[in-house]
Amino acid sequence: MKIDKISSQSVTKIDYPKGLESKASSDLINQYIKYVDLKTKIKAGNTKSKAEVSGGGAKPWKQKGTGRARHGSTRSPIWRGGGITFGPTSGPSRRILMNKKMRRKAFKAILSLLAKNNQVKVAEFEDSDLPKTIREQITKEASSVNSIKLIVIDRKKSILSKAANLKNTELVNLNRFGAAQMQGKTLIIFEDEAIAELVKRLKS
Fold this sequence. Notes:
The protein is α/β, with parallel strands linked by helices. It folds into 2 domains: 2-43 and 98-203, Ribosomal Protein L4, Chain: A (3-Layer(aba) Sandwich), CATH 3.40.1370.10; 44-91, no CATH class. It is built from 5 helices and 6 strands. The chain has helices spanning 26-40, 100-116, 131-141, 179-182, 192-203; strands at 2-6, 11-15, 120-123, 149-153, 169-173, 187-191. It has a 6-stranded mixed beta sheet with strand order 2-1-3-6-4-5. Strand 1 (2-6) and strand 2 (11-15) form a beta hairpin. It is elongated.
């Protein structure tokens, strides 16, 4: 499989790294996407149940003889100041278990599918290249004017960071690159050093 390599001079075809090639079933990929969504989902609400609300240890009154309804705690959900029934919590509503081998296979399979659709490219620029030249070359290789691009770099002071102010472009460090960052992107551009480092990490 071939992918485009962008430079200030031209665009050439190179082999897609074999260390990133993988095939996985659609079920495994869907399971991995759900796993990532649950991991990255922000849960804002966190109510307390009857067991979590402080106080209410003593029975408010004896069981019989008072003429009132029986109660065991003042922290019951039907009491003022009591716990909340079926309220939102910060804990996951459900869990999806995936081991490291399965996650890695699914991640590489998604990246391989994007590369097969010509949505993965590698960029190699020199420090002497002008920022305008870098931005023009990357924009030229975008699938459309409104395409959402993701630029993956390996170091903070990368030459590709000069293209970060492009329209609809997101810049991300390799350490923070994952399936969540790939969602909704029509084009992923790797710094040449970043894709080489990614191959090394996925081998170990």
